[in-house]
């Protein structure tokens, strides 16, 4: 049984993320915990003066109940089960609380996509979940197609060793979609792999050869910066999902947190699967 936490604010992108997760794991038995986290206002630093910061509690409870009811009604999978969670408080502590209480395996979050070229690639809540919550997170853009990934990209700088725990979600996703797994490394002109990178590459390729001998490939892109290399690779290979490892903070920072929409556009259509060790 897979336990999936789906935070919602009732927006189209959060509902789309839920639908994508249902489609992705249609062959697996899953519990979907649909979570609404409202904010609290504390103007007098007194617990008795706490007020809801985002509207009527009964209204949001009704919206959540309607969302879960509608999701159940349209679900075609007998092995999918849906539960509503409604709380007021701080977002990240509430997420962490439910990770423990519901034994969550995966968090699925929606992103709004590009409504302005100067916007950051991901929002504050999503960024906080990726960096502050030790749980695998699937970030789903609003424009994503509701189909299983055929081409999965794993961009890497080869600076960290990838343990079996990190690689398992990749194995699962390749098996779910009968996908091709494309490992990509960007290398500047004149640069060479150091010994640690060579060892990490050798282990990664040996693992893939044993696990998916016909379904993986390794690609080196030269003379391009990392963001440009990934953008080019995504477009040329028609990539429809990307894996990243949260442990490699410097690398993930370049792609997700230092980038704005005008610099990269692949995030508006393909999901990011961020792995925690």
Automatic annotation (TrEMBL):
Residues 1-141 form the UspA domain. InterPro entries: Rossmann-like_a/b/a_fold, Universal_stress_UspA, UspA. It comes from the Bacteria. Pfam families: Usp (PF00582). CDD domains: USP-like. Belongs to the universal stress protein A family. This is Universal stress protein. It comes from Flagellimonas sp. MMG031.
């Amino acid at each position: 049984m897979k336990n999936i936490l789906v935070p919602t604010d009732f927006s189209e992108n959060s509902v789309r993320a839920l639908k994508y997760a249902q489609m992705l794991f249609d062959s697996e038995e899953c519990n979907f915990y649909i979570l609404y986290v409202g904010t609290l206002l504390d103007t007098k630093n007194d617990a008795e003066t706490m007020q809801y910061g985002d509207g009527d509690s009964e209204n949001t409870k009704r919206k959540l109940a309607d969302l879960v009811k509608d999701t159940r009604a349209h679900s075609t999978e007998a092995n999918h089960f849906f539960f509503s969670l409604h709380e007021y408080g701080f977002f990240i502590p509430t997420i962490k609380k439910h990770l423990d209480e519901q034994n969550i395996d995966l968090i699925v979050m929606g992103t709004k996509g590009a409504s302005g070229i100067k916007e950051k690639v991901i929002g504050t809540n999503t960024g906080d979940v990726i960096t502050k919550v030790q749980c695998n997170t699937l970030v789903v853009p609003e424009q994503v197609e509701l189909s299983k990934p055929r081409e999965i990209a794993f961009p890497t700088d080869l600076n960290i060793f990838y343990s079996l725990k990190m690689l398992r979600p990749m194995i699962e996703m390749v098996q779910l979609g009968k996908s091709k797994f494309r490992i990509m490394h960007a290398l500047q002109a004149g640069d060479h792999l150091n010994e640690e990178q060579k060892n990490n590459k050798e282990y990664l390729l040996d693992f893939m050869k044993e696990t998916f001998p016909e379904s993986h490939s390794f690609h080196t892109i030269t003379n391009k910066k990392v963001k440009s290399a990934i953008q080019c690779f995504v477009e040329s290979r028609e990539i429809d999902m990307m894996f990243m490892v949260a442990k490699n903070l410097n690398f993930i920072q370049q792609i997700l947190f230092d980038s704005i929409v005008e610099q990269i556009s692949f995030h508006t259509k393909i999901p990011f699967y961020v792995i925690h060790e």
